[in-house]
Amino acid sequence: MAPIDLLGFVPERFRRLVLELVQFGLVGGIGFVVQVSVFNVLRATVFSPTAVHAGPILAMLVSTLLAIIVNWLGNRYWTFRAKRQERILRESVEFFAVSVVGMMIGLGCLWFSHYVLGFRSVFADNVSGNVIGLVLGAAFRFVLYRFWVFDPNRSIPKASVPAVVPAAATERVASR
Predict the structure, then answer these.
(1) How many domains, the chain?
(2) Residue-wise pLDDT tens digits, 138-149
(3) Is the CB of residue 96 less than 8 Å from the CB of residue 144?
């Protein structure tokens, strides 16, 4: 039995992009479940707004940081595995930098809704932080992950690395 081509409807030149978007979405879905679950548990317990004034913000911060770790592992080892950098430290720092900016987008949406507009229910906090903020942050992250963090063309070009010439070769050239 022949394998089923799930991307048969997509033109050949866009298949890699569509596959990355689907994989990014699946990894993000797992991160979303982690983020929303942890957010709601923390908001209902240790970071309850009745106990801690900035509780929803702190709950969002902690839950998003955990989701970033899950997303980094999924994107590095699955979505962008063919594009990952040899220098894992540089790649992970860039990934976390982009993720933190994406997190700030979600936090900004939550902060604006909760503190400026006064929508303080659990539902409103989830819609502003976990729906609107997440969608805006995900779009930002996908573009920067794909074209910056996991771009294999960003590695140091060979021409910019000084060549090491053996001493014997330089002596032969100098003696001519």
Answers:
(1) 1
(2) 899 999 998 888
(3) no
